[in-house]
């Protein structure tokens, strides 16, 4: 809420609309899918053919349902979904952190997730909050050995974003390890259900395009391919010195947090989930200005920071989170009014 107030204030000072950024970029692609279904192609001036098949279906389906049920515009339906999903995501993050580390760390973990620099994306008509909610609760249920619930949510997460693969991998590997101890119908059913959203949508795209690699050709058209991080490295090198240093420090910090998760022997599902998304973010090409929001769902990386902050006094915790809130609020507002989460 604080970030939103800062956004409104800065927008007013700049004589800009605070609402407009909520309706741009990916929000328009989701709106078009919710209204008309799939099949739209945008021929970019740079020669690329951008197909809407790159956007997974669960979020626009929810948009259409809410739109039909409430008569809100599709965009506003998407914003409503994102706001509600962010609450469920925060609850899921709290439950996992509380289960592993107690109430104080859990509350700080939720606060940190809300205050990440690109946290404003949580309330845009984007799929990040919905995906984070599905991922968090799926991981919570797999930690608590509620296999069928975890698999159902993993299937939905896999149908929400391509990085749903991280959730599916975490759940499927955990189920396979459980299967070694003895099989049951529930385990086998969960194994079958978990990858359905991801694989089902990709196969549907393949059928629609008449190609076994249809979805990957769509991703390639958007410039999103696996190249081992070569494009990312070139982007860092060819940018300004300040940009190169800043991004390099950010990547180093990201890898350090991931290493800390392993050092602390966090549960395997969390390690798989975090590792897969970080790996995808660092080794695929695409618009690198969007990498921070791609990493928004990787909430386990915040646990080491939350635990460190939890060791401070209550007053210090308030000052740290307050200062972070102001800094990220200003950054998020300026970012959203500038290049934004393309």
Could you give a quick summary of the protein structure above?
With 342 residues, the chain is mainly α. The protein has 17 helices and two strands.
Please give a handful of descriptors for the protein shown:
mainly alpha, two-stranded antiparallel ribbon, 17 helices, 2 strands, globular
Provide the fold topology.
Blueprint: H1 2-13, H2 26-36, E1 41-43, E2 49-51, H3 58-70, H4 74-101, H5 103-114, H6 128-143, H7 147-158, H8 164-179, H9 185-193, H10 196-209, H11 214-221, H12 230-238, H13 241-263, H14 268-283, H15 291-294, H16 303-310, H17 314-337
Antiparallel strand pairs: 1-2
Helix pairs in contact: 1-17, 2-3, 3-4, 4-5, 4-6, 5-16, 6-7, 6-8, 7-8, 7-9, 7-10, 8-9, 8-14, 12-13, 13-14
Number of strands: 2
Number of domains: 1
Classify the helix fraction into a percent range: 55-70%
SS-based class: mainly alpha
What does this structure look like?
The protein has a two-stranded antiparallel ribbon with strand order 1-2. By secondary structure, the protein is mostly helical. It is globular, with a radius of gyration of 20 Å. 69% of the residues lie in helices and 2% in strands. It is built from 17 helices and two strands. The mean pLDDT is 89.
């Amino acid at each position: 809420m604080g970030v939103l107030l800062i956004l409104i204030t800065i927008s007013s000072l700049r004589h800009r609309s605070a609402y407009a950024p909520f309706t741009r970029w990916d929000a328009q692609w989701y709106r078009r899918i919710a209204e008309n279904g799939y099949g739209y192609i945008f021929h970019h001036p740079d020669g690329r053919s951008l197909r809407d098949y790159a956007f997974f279906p669960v979020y626009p389906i929810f948009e259409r349902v809410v739109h039909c049920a409430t008569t809100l515009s599709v965009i506003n339906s998407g914003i409503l979904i994102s706001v509600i999903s962010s609450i469920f995501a925060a609850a899921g993050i709290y439950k996992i952190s509380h289960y592993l580390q107690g109430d104080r760390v859990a509350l700080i973990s939720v606060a940190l997730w809300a205050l990440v620099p690109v946290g404003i994306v949580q309330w845009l008509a984007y799929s990040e909050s919905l995906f984070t909610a599905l991922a968090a609760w799926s991981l919570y249920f797999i930690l608590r050995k509620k296999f069928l619930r975890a698999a159902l949510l993993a299937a939905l997460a896999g149908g929400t974003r391509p990085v749903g693969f991280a959730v599916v991998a975490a759940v499927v590997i955990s189920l396979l390890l459980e299967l070694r101890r003895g099989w049951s119908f529930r385990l086998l059913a969960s194994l079958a259900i978990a990858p359905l959203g991801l694989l089902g949508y990709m196969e549907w795209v393949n059928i629609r395009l008449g190609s076994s690699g249809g979805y990957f050709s769509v991703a390639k058209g958007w410039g999103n391919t696996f190249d081992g991080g070569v494009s990312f490295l070139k982007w860092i090198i060819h940018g300004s010195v300040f940009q190169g240093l800043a991004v390099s420090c950010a990547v180093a910090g990201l890898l350090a947090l991931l290493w800390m998760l392993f050092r602390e022997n966090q549960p395997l599902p969390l390690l798989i989930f975090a590792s897969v998304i970080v790996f995808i973010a660092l080794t695929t090409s695409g618009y690198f200005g969007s990498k921070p929001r791609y990493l928004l769902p990787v909430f386990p990386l915040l646990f080491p920071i939350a635990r460190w902050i939890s060791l401070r006094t209550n007053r210090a915790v308030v000052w740290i989170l307050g200062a972070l809130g102001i800094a990220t609020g200003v950054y998020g507002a300026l970012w959203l009014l500038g290049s934004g989460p393309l």
